Amino acid sequence: MSDLNQALATKYKGNFLKEVIDNVEEGDMVQMCMQCGVCAGSCPMGPHWEHTPQKIFMMIRANKREEVLASDSMWMCTSCYNCIARCPRELPITHIMHGLATYAKRLNLVPKTQPTAKFAQLFWNNLTSKGRVNELKLGISLYFMNGFGEGVKTAMANQKLGLNMLKTKRMAINEAWGGHSVKDKSGFHAMLKKAAEIESDSIEANSK
Amino acid sequence: MSKEYSFYPGCSSQSGASSSNYLTSVNAMCEELDIKLNTIDDWNCCAASIGYAGGGELPRVSLSARNIALSEKQHPEQDIVATCAACWLATREASERIKESTKIKEGTGLALKEAGLEMKNDKNVRHMVEVLVEDIGMAAITDKVKKPLEGLKIAGYVGCQTNRPFGIDGESFENPQYLDNMVEAVGAEPIRSYEKKVSCCGGALAFSEPDKSFNLIKPILESAMDNGADMIVTPCPVCQMNTEVYQDKINEKFGTNFNIPVVYYSTLMSVAFGRSAADSALNGQVIQAEKLNAIAAK
Amino acid sequence: MADEIKTGAYICKGCDLGNRLNTDQLEMIATREGRVASAKSHDFLCGAEGVKMIQDDLDSGESNRVVIAACSRRAKTDAFNFAGVPMSRVNLREGVIWVRPDEDEAQETTQEMAEDYVRMGCAEIKFMSTPKASEEQGTNRHVLVVGGGITGMTAAIEAARAGYQVSLVEKTDALGGTTGQLYKRAPTRAPYADPEDTGVTELAQMLEDDDKVTIYLNSILSSSDGAPGRFDIEITTGDATQSISCGSIIQASGQTEFDANQLTEFSYADAPDVITQLEMEALAKAADGGPVKRPSDGKEVQNVVFVQCAGQRSDKEGHLSYCSGHCCNTSIKQAMYLKDNAEAAAEGSSIDVQTTILFTDLRTPGAGGEDFYRSGQNKGVTFRKGSVSGVSADAKVSFSDLILDEDDTIDADLVVLATGMIPNSGRNNEREDELAAQKTQLEAENKEVPQEILDEIAIPVESILNLKYRQGSDLPQLVSGFNDSHFICFPYETRRTGIYAAGPTRRPMDTQQAQEDATGATMKAIQAIENAGQGMAAHPRAGDLSYPSFRKEGCTQCKRCMMECPFGAIGFDEKGFPEYNEARCRRCGTCMGACPVRVISFENYSIDSVGQQIKACDIPDEFDEKPRLLVLACENDAYPALDMAAQNRFEYSAFVRVVPVRCLGSVNTIWITDALNSGYDGVVLMGCKKGDDYQCHFVKGSEMAHMRMSKIADTLQTLNLEEERVAVHEVAITDIHRVPELINDMAKTIDEIGMSPFKF
Q1: C194: helix, coil or strand?
Q2: Is the pLDDT of residue C2 over 70?
Q3: pLDDT per residue over B26-74, tens digit each?
Q4: Cβ separation B57–A101 shorter than 8 A
């Protein structure tokens, strides 16, 4: 358990709902769920969730902190927004799932082999490095995210796909050297650093 | 007088990126419709829908805030327009979040200051299809058609984010009509009862969870074929990518033989407006849209 | 009518009737067979000119009764409205041309249909006279309200504001009832976010200040008798009794909280910190905005669990089968007391009272219910869908979470049980009679009377009204002990005319609904007074002046009329002859249908007025292959359904002849026997739904008819006829597709079993 995780668990002992309200993106809406289950029935990844959003909301109210945060479930979200469009209580379910996922990541509780968690981090690193996504590098890092051997295998299996993209000029080898970037990189990075600090500070403060 | 917009092209539209063909055809389409797109100088990535895990809320919102702030400075009177579904969604969401939450508003304000920027947040953030539906109108599009796409049966795959959660022109989330109307406007036959019109293709999870995503993509293709579609049209780069470039992998996995072109609405318009195959980015199709090639060559 | 009967028959040729039918032929039938004094056709009978033609004849004395052969009796009632003149409406439009195809081959049978209906109208009119009110009625603009809770108080103030004198009788020593025991109540207006004051104190003050209102505390009704417009009441206060008279009565006797001692699984009897909702109100009242303290040791509560549906919506022995309607909102409200109090006390600190509502189905009815639920969620009340298996003596709640599919427990300081309500509806006379009869029967057979019967007889139930009616001391009950009120059409109308039930005595409800109920019942009570003064019926035959009378020489004093009357309107004199109480009568004719010797009739509705219509039809002989089907259709739902089917041009058999009746309960079996004897091939009866979820406008009429008709099989057997020739159907007003099918089904049946052998 990370120190922050430990501190927050202690601080909100017995009231995980309050912890979610205070620290998770749009977390204050969790209490408004009326348990109809429309979200669970509308999710394209429905069969793959260990706990559907409906259950996640109930688990939060039932104080199942570890079970929720260490769950693989939120990482199933494809951001299709079907649940948001259909929720009769207008809960921003997609955002709450994203919020829980990033909160779990912050507390270091994400299952180690969760592929979307890894990919999402790669994506973030990729885009923040120069301010714009480098698809070639992203693709390569994606293939190799589970180690070199696995990566070669994946790359070979997707060889044709890559060639197709190159052929249609929808992928460019020269992106490997440099590639697209924002001009004001220092300003861009300073901005992100500040935003990250504000967010971390706020959660740190809640843990005390 | 041409209509002007502050344009946010997004990462995937850049040269050598996966939807560079989308931008090519959008440019041709806009020229014909007298739409002037003024690109936001020094725009950055919006973090799309998968950036949440690495970024958290405030850094993510700050990314879009920077784009909005740049747009305010460069094109103060113009709506922000994006062609990519994720770009539009992330920017509009950020703008609304900043309006609704003082905490987020203060946070982004401080972050922007580090980059020497500030924002008023008084802009409309719109998708290109909104411009076509609301500002241009189907009748004006039909007026520009020089080569009606007669005889083409097209499945309009709206997908998720050019539909939910904001909706286009107040249309139903479950059965929006705007894409079918566009197909009709360029003289082709829409499949209005296309069952998978608003189903999810897996989005970014096609990368991290390919098997689960292929299970979602297959029925989207299948339903188009079952309805006798010659091709699929979509307004979204991720939808286009997922439904086109993985057809080989899906055939491999399921023993199917899909080979159905997936094009952008802008491709259809560009061809119908009489532009060349190159202007319409038909060379960007991994699966060639032969029937469009033929019309463009006429 | 002493004058000579001079009937004018008027045949309309409008709405295509003139094209589809041979109206000259109809005129001839009316004159030659119907024996009317004059028969005339008009192109547009309901137009000013047509109406004037009729009025001129009436004014000149050329006619004094009219037969209108045009559209349904339900159409053009404004045009065909001749005060004091008996009128028969012959339905040629909805009854004939709209249900028949406009084709040459159909023309003959369509014309025959029209001719028969003209014959029937001319026959009916001979047996109709103008009803006049009896001389019995009185007007007494005084409303008696029984019960001083929120329902009764609201009824009293509403009646007083409308200018009526009010007597309000309350059993206890103060006004307020159950609502008076509440700390606050669920909100009754937008934004439906917070509990609000009950308003009881202000309401009580208003009543005390109103000089139209007399309040009787510590009082009961020791006797009530009479009829709408002239009830005689005795009010007993302690040892003293005083008599008053009133025009109508509102029974607002309220409810009693379910006895939680029966809930052993929730440890109510043993655990001081397991309480009912009403007990929670007392704790909240005591706390008055401060921290709520639990009963056992006075500790401030920090974790409170609300158990919904405790002993209700359950099929367990002794539990309530129904939902009490208010308890979910009540628990939300009580959880809010705790949340609001804690917030006020803590002022922003994180001290909080955990409140968990355990429900299986959360029901928050009413306009603001959903908003109130959301407000509860917003305030941090936790809602968990769970089924509670037990509560231990130290308030540990065990339940199974129905979303997470697992068992869980909550260690609570205080557990509140939502136990529901039992109506205070007085004695169930019907059940008492049933039990007494069972006991007598068993004793007569020298058998042991089972203990449960003796136990049930032994339970003392207090009467609320102490009615001196032959039919019992209290308002009849329907299911679960609630007073029977016509829930689907006339919610406050009980089976005792002029006595209106309001509030939870008639169905479970919350305080706001009870107040709305009280207002509605007051309006009905006022209407009853005014109607009674003019000798007019209450709905559904509102304004009807006809009332039943009987031929004494034929009466066998069998008392069937008294027993079958759904409204307790019939008593009997010392010789056993019926006494009709016009003001209590609703004019359904169930007595007429019940009478085995057929001596009961109304001025404008009688055994003859229908019987002669049946006999007036032309019955073709067997070899014509034109069967005749008789439909007796209830005028409330079945006849309108037939009209609407016609408006939609749904066709049905040309062999049918439809006669509207006031209620299926008024159908006397003689009509059926006569019809079959005179050669009809089949008879179809259409009435409203009966049973616990009845739609019968006269509550029991349809049920009585069904009972009578269950014995018709014997009659058919003696006539050597097939059982299938008579069918009884329950029909709703919306059954417009079904009614033509029911007719056609009978036509098909006759096709299969063959024509009646009784054709002359």
Answers
A1: coil
A2: no
A3: 999 999 999 999 999 999 999 999 999 898 999 999 999 999 999 999 9
A4: no
Indicate the CATH number of C258-421 among 3.40.228.10, 3.50.50.60, 3.40.50.150, 3.40.50.620.
Answer: 3.50.50.60
Q: Between 1.10.3470, 3.40.50, 3.30.70, 3.40.1260, what CATH number should domain C619-760 receive?
A: 3.40.50
Shortest distance, CA A176 to any CA of chain B (angstroms): 11
Pairing type for strands C396-401 and C406-411 reads: antiparallel
Share of chain C above pLDDT 90, in %: 89
Chains that touch A (3 or more CB pairs under 8 A): B, C
Rounded CA-CA distance A37/C659 in Å is: 53
Both B151 and B56 in one domain: the answer is: no
| Separation between Cα atoms, residue C599 and residue C554, nearest integer Å | 6
Token pair of A171 as six digits: 């992928």
Per the structure, the count of domains in chain B is: 2
Q: Measured between alpha carbons, how far is B42 from B128 in angstroms, rounded to an integer?
A: 20
| Residue C13: CA count within 13 A, CB half-sphere | 12
Tell which of B93, B128, B163 closes a domain. B128
Q: Do A58 and C408 touch (CB under 8 A)?
A: no
Chains A and B touch (3+ CB pairs under 8 A): yes
* CB nearest C404 (choices: A15, A18, A59): A59
CB within 8 Å: A62 and C408: yes
Res C657 pLDDT > 90: yes
What's the pLDDT tens digit per position in C444-486? Answer: 999 999 999 999 898 889 999 999 998 999 999 999 999 999 8
Q: Do A98 and B208 touch (CB under 8 A)?
A: no
Q: Note whether B261 and B152 are same-domain residues.
A: yes
Contacts of A64 (CB under 8 A, 6+ apart): A16
The length of chain C in residues reads 760
Chain A contacts of B164, Cβ < 8 Å? 80-82, 84-85
Report the CATH number that the domain containing residue B88 is assigned in CATH. Answer: 1.20.1050.140
User: Do residues B167 and B279 both lie within one domain?
Assistant: yes
Asked if B246 reaches chain A (Cβ–Cβ under 8 Å), the answer is yes
- Per residue in A117-164, pLDDT (tens digit) is 999 999 999 999 999 999 999 988 888 888 888 888 888 888 888 889
User: Which B-chain residues 62-121 have CB contacts (< 8 A) with chain A?
Assistant: 62-63, 66, 107-108, 110-117
Alpha carbons C182 and C281: distance in angstroms, whole number = 5
Chain mean pLDDT for chain C: 94
The CATH code of domain C142-254+462-533 reads 3.50.50.60
- Joined together, the tokens standing for residue B38 give 């003024």
A168 and B283 within 8 Å at the Cβ level: the answer is yes
Classify C38 as helix, strand or coil: strand
Domains defined for chain A, CATH in brackets: 3-111 (1.10.1060.10), 117-196 (no CATH)
Residues C311 and C420: beta-carbon distance below 8 Å: yes
Taking the C-alpha atoms of residue C497 and residue C504, their distance in angstroms, rounded to an integer, is: 19
CATH superfamily of C1-130: Lumazine/riboflavin synthase (3.40.50.960)
How many residues are there in chain B?
298
Any CB–CB contact under 8 A between B145 and chain A?
no
In three-state secondary structure terms, C236 is strand
Nearest CA in chain A to C303: A14
Note whether residue B159 is domain-resident.
yes
Cβ–Cβ contact A200 with C under 8 A: no
Q: What is the mean pLDDT of residues C419-429?
A: 96
Average pLDDT score over residue span A104-110: 96
Residue of C nearest to A12 (CA): C350
At which of B69, B104, B128 does a domain end?
B128
Domain extent at residue B71: 3-128
My answer on whether B159 and B103 are in the same domain is: no
Q: Are residues B91 and B212 in the same domain?
A: no
| Min distance B249 CA to chain A CA atoms (Å) | 9
